[in-house]
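thread: overnight batch results

M.L. [08:02]
morning all. the overnight job finished for the chain we discussed friday. pasting input first so we're all looking at the same thing
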Amino acid sequence: MVVRELRQVEMIGRPLRIGVIGSAEVDGVVREAARAVGRDLARAEAIVVCGGLGGVMAAAAEGAAAEAGVVLGFLPGRETSSAAPGVSIPVPTGLGEVRNALVVRASEAVIAIAGGWGTLNEASLCMKLGIPLVGVMDALGEKFDIERFEDPAAAVARALELASERRRTAG
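M.L. [08:03]
and the structure it wrote out:
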């Protein structure tokens, strides 16, 4: 019982970690949705976890950075210089696409925005590992039975709620 109580105390004050996954190349509407997600996560004092490069990742990082948020970016290569400008903690993995597993494992919930093959890979890992996943204009298809939102703020609120629930029940 004491160990469990200590663990709960230990978790108090630690920010939630929310993954943001999506297309490496984006248009204006998707870019703005990703920026809004990053901004809202930073305002909620959550850590944005992403793949650290362009597209949705860069836009979410930019949005979070504009609000002085923390962005953890798992980079595919060995150099931090490839990180998007808003990434505050670039982690060069040298793992290529395998880094997708790190993005998912480091997240307590994940938000998918648009997406391609890499996003499908990360979303599949979420489903397999039981990491809560929500979508905003996602391209995951009907095989992914997830909650989907038009409004980025609603997706962020739901992801934060799911991450909090996951943390409470992880005990």
